[in-house]
Amino acid sequence: MKISKREPEAKNSAAESWRDFPAAQQPDWPDEAELRAVAGELTTAPPLVFSAECDLLRRRMAAVARGEAVLLQGGDCAETFARTTADAIRGKLKTLLQMAVVLTHATALPVVKVGRMAGQYAKPRSSPEERRGELVLPSHRGDAVNGTEFTAEARRPDPKRLRKMYESSATTLNLIRALTTGGFADLRQVHAWNQGFVADSQAGERYERLAQEIDRSLAFMHACGVDTRELGTAEFFVSHEGLLLDYEAALTRTDPENGRSYATSGHLLWIGERTRDLDGAHIEYFSRVANPIAVKLGPTAAPDDVMRLLDRLDPNREPGRLTFVVRAGADRIRDLLPTLVEKVNAEGALVCWVSDPMHGNTITAASGHKTRRFDAILDEVRGFVEVHQALGTHPGGIHVELTGDDVTECVGGGNAILPEDLHQRYETACDPRLNHTQSLDLAFLLAERYREHPTRS
Ligand SMILES: O=C[C@H](O)[C@H](O)COP(=O)(O)O
Ligand SMILES: C=C(OP(=O)(O)O)C(=O)O
Ligand SMILES: [Mn+2]
């Protein structure tokens, strides 16, 4: 994208029009002038992603909508500045690449790989405040806004953090681009992605067997004269919740070729369950940018509201533009999803349907830790696939919170983590994530579901 000298944005532009609408879940920035100054700096910063990459992802998502590809989207609930390290980034990437191999092998469909990475620094919260004893302070809203430490100083929203969010996103994206194009993501490295992870995990062993099978297939193709060097790079996109509209607006750019506005902070942005109000600022902003976008749908999403979201966000009915990420909870998904899918189908719209099996299944353990049961996560995914199978529609993929680290945040899985283990490595800055083994377990179990009910004949 060519960047020309910026004129002040018009009132009715994508970068400005949302200001006339109520914006939910925005920090109470104590110093408006400081916010304006940082946002001003960001309006002249280079874009993190390019419009052509966003268009490419929109085409990939169109394949998901048509049932010709599967989406794998995952990463931390909340990225942190402290964990913007090579190890942490590589660990998440390796985990996603491994999961993608498992899913590709099972479905024989391309897997569109999208990290919750390089921008996932802001969090909506159930409560604006947190109380500890007598002391009440603003809730932690992600590293983009304030610190986790429970002091008035740390919890004060600081606009300089938006600048740091941009820099950490750029650092992360730089490493992702290097790793995915520089040989690390080469399919001929399929064994290497398992290294550094828990050696004795059943999922790891199962993965190793699959990797051997892939090796043999590659050797066979090579022997037949196929140039397997083509498999040397992986296509990988980044995504985050488009929550902080001052930040997103500051990074909005117009493509001089096609005249459309793009959020250039990430390829795909989603609108959260708490900010999808039809009359709110988030829907206004996202209706005006051309990126592929997603909307979370929780158990209270009314079918009529979903249809209105479709009209606002995808008025041209462009496959790949809109993804509905359903996070109803394991006990609700089978009841709620059919009506939503049927209504959208009756409208003749082609959207991507994706399951987020995490956010409807959060519980508090006796120890006080926020956690999720692996079985509930799996059950929601199963319900999601069953509903689509019954309706003859495509279960487009999954959106999960995970890390490559060996954390103990969700209970269950192959190497069963017990509620009493949670304290051992509970490191999330917000919601509990699947660890590496649990992530692979989920990929294998989802692969089985897809194999039982192939989408394409
Ligand atoms: O990630 C999602 C939300 O930000 C998170 O679930 C909110 O958590 P809270 O209920 O602790 O505020
Ligand atoms: C905030 C999140 O989810 P939801 O909006 O679905 O609650 C999230 O994905 O971290
Ligand atoms: Mn979360």
Automatic annotation (TrEMBL):
Mn(2+) binds at C77, H359, E401, D431. Pathway: Metabolic intermediate biosynthesis; chorismate biosynthesis; chorismate from D-erythrose 4-phosphate and phosphoenolpyruvate: step 1/7. This is Phospho-2-dehydro-3-deoxyheptonate aldolase. Phosphoenolpyruvate binds at R116, E273, R274, K296, R327. GO terms for molecular function: 3-deoxy-7-phosphoheptulonate synthase activity. Residues 1-27 are annotated as: Disordered. It catalyses: D-erythrose 4-phosphate + phosphoenolpyruvate + H2O = 7-phospho-2-dehydro-3-deoxy-D-arabino-heptonate + phosphate.
